[in-house]
């Protein structure tokens, strides 16, 4: 049985609505003013709130604003009641996050329809969220044990050899094994960081306050950041001669750490899936408050079906290409771009150059 909170300072109207809810097989809770209503919402966490606008002490707008600040009540559907029918009042309520608006007097049919619509929407959102969580849980279950086990086995195996045979090994052999252990440890560390970052981004996506904070940062010099990240990765892989940069500077609405993460993951993929002595190019441009970055490499392509199925913990042609890692890099880059109001696209066909491009809100530098 759905639980509905009614916040209305007119006693007769509040009681009428509560009686109607009972007849419609809902559990009704009554609050005689805005202050009481906020307290009841936080205690009972109703499935829907019906609230009058014009009330003493705390009006309906104040109630909605207070509840949207609390993560536990921020997503509860909200229907405003008011004797006002002007567009300004409706717009003000919608801007604050109200889902619907009923003008007094209203019929039982209108009230019932408004309630049914909002509860159905809530069920759809909850179903979609659950499906996402189920998919995430399934992918983690399939991927995480293998991805963690591979570098960990390397660390354990090589360290066991060092412990048991150290006295008979020469220094070159010891150093070689230590380097392999170090490489496996770095791989494991990056993998764990990516899993944690992806989980955090999914939580932020459903938290309005944290999302607003995420979008409040800026990077003042994109050209320097991209140049430094791309050049360092090229040096690590011995591919300085393959890297081409044509960059325009801009101020973008994203933290430096997150822009750096996007570039790191995309340039890493570009080098990983292209051969030595083939070009990997990065271009950027600014136009009409939008900053665009394009990466092009001449290597393994993707089919339209593979592009459409991009998701966390998904790799393509693992057996054919023996690629390592959880496949999280691309989806993390895509998610970061989307959470900052941008878009990431992939243009590719098998055996042809692949182009990855993303946009971000920006100010020209």
Structure at a glance:
The chain has twelve helices and eleven strands. By secondary structure, it is an alpha/beta fold.
Describe this structure in words.
The chain is an alpha/beta fold and 365 residues long. The chain has 3 domains: 3-106, Rossmann fold; 133-206, Orthogonal Bundle (Helix Hairpins), CATH 1.10.287; 213-364, Histidine kinase-like ATPase, C-terminal domain (Heat Shock Protein 90, 2-Layer Sandwich), CATH 3.30.565. The protein has helices spanning 11-23, 34-44, 60-68, 87-96, 108-165, 171-205, 208-214, 222-236, 256-272, 304-308, 318-321, 328-339; strands spanning 3-7, 27-31, 48-52, 78-82, 100-103, 243-246, 250-252, 280-287, 290-297, 343-347, 354-364. Residues 311-326 have low confidence and may be disordered.
